[in-house]
């Protein structure tokens, strides 16, 4: 529980106490009423007025606490909760995007590596096929060419995935710096 919430709870308790105190003071003088000719009448009447005034002040203070300060604190607390939820959601999206980009990069890197190995093996087979028939060598050469083209496409995808992963990492770092700054500001306000 944040400090702001604790202060708000203390103020609610204070308002409740002030209200009870004020109501008690207002009800104190109801049963006291000396006769008009009694010498204590003026002093008792002044005491009752004093109780009534102090009781009304306590009720006004309780109302002001509830209507001004507590409402303002609760509004700030509510806003902080909403902002915190949005920040959490945004951070989760950032993390997911970064992880997804890294997974795509890893997949492209593996595919690029395997395509290069396949193309290299096929070209080695072509070099070794000097003693083969022309038609079989031509078939091996076509296969090596096709695998080389696939390796080139995989290379393009791999470099593209590096760029995308780097952009996602950069965005993550920029946004996280901003998120941490906002969270620090919110914590200072609490």
The percentage helix is over 70%
Q: Based on CA inertia axes, which overall geometry fits? A: rod-shaped
Major pleated sheet:
none
- Overall pLDDT: 87
Taken in chain order, the helices and strands follow as HHH
Characterization of this structure:
The protein is mainly alpha-helical and 190 residues long. Helices cover 89% and strands 0% of the residues. It contains three helices and no strands. The chain is rod-shaped and about 140 Å long.
List the SSEs and their pairings:
Elements: H1 3-28, H2 41-128, H3 134-189
Helix pairs in contact: 1-2, 2-3
Short overview:
With 190 residues, the chain is an all-alpha fold.
Features:
190 residues, rod-shaped, single chain, 3 helices
């Amino acid at each position: 529980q944040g400090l702001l919430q604790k202060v708000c709870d203390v103020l609610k308790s204070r308002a409740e106490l002030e209200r009870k105190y004020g109501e008690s003071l207002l009800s104190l003088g109801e049963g006291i009423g000396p006769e008009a000719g009694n010498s204590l009448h003026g002093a008792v009447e002044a005491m009752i007025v004093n109780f009534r005034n102090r009781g009304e002040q306590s009720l006004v203070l309780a109302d002001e606490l509830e209507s001004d300060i507590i409402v303002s604190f609760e509004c700030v607390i509510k806003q902080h909760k909403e902002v915190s939820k949005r920040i959490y959601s945004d951070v989760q999206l950032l993390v997911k995007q970064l992880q997804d980009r890294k997974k795509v990069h890893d997949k492209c890197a593996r595919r690029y590596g395997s395509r290069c190995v396949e193309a290299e093996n096929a070209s080695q087979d072509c070099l070794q096929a000097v003693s083969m028939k022309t038609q079989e060598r031509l078939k091996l050469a076509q296969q090596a060419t096709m695998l080389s083209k696939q390796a080139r496409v995989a290379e393009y995808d791999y470099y593209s995935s590096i760029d995308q992963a780097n952009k996602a990492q950069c965005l993550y770092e920029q946004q996280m710096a901003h998120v941490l700054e906002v969270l620090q500001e919110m914590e200072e306000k609490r």
